[in-house]
Amino acid sequence: MAKRKVTITDIADEAGVSVPTVSRVVNGRDDVSPATRARVEELLDRHGYRRRGTSGSRAALLDLVFTDLDSPWAVEIIRGVEEVAHEAGVGTVVSAIHDRAGSARQWLTNLRARASDGVILVTSALGPGIQDELRRLGVPLVVVDPAGSSAPKEPTIGATNWAGGMAATEHLLELGHRRIGFIQGPPRLLCSRARLDGYRAALDAADVPADTALVVPGDFYHEAGFTGCNRLLNLPEPPTAVFAASDQMALGAIEALRRRGLRVPEDMSVVGFDDLPEVRWSAPPLTTVRQPLSEMGRLAAQMALDLARRVQPASPRMELATELVVRASTAPPREV
Amino acid sequence: MAKRKVTITDIADEAGVSVPTVSRVVNGRDDVSPATRARVEELLDRHGYRRRGTSGSRAALLDLVFTDLDSPWAVEIIRGVEEVAHEAGVGTVVSAIHDRAGSARQWLTNLRARASDGVILVTSALGPGIQDELRRLGVPLVVVDPAGSSAPKEPTIGATNWAGGMAATEHLLELGHRRIGFIQGPPRLLCSRARLDGYRAALDAADVPADTALVVPGDFYHEAGFTGCNRLLNLPEPPTAVFAASDQMALGAIEALRRRGLRVPEDMSVVGFDDLPEVRWSAPPLTTVRQPLSEMGRLAAQMALDLARRVQPASPRMELATELVVRASTAPPREV
DNA sequence: CTGAAAGCGCTTACAG
DNA sequence: CTGAAAGCGCTTACAG
Question: Which Pfam families does the annotation name (chains A, B) (predicted)?
Answer without folding.
Answer: LacI, Peripla_BP_3
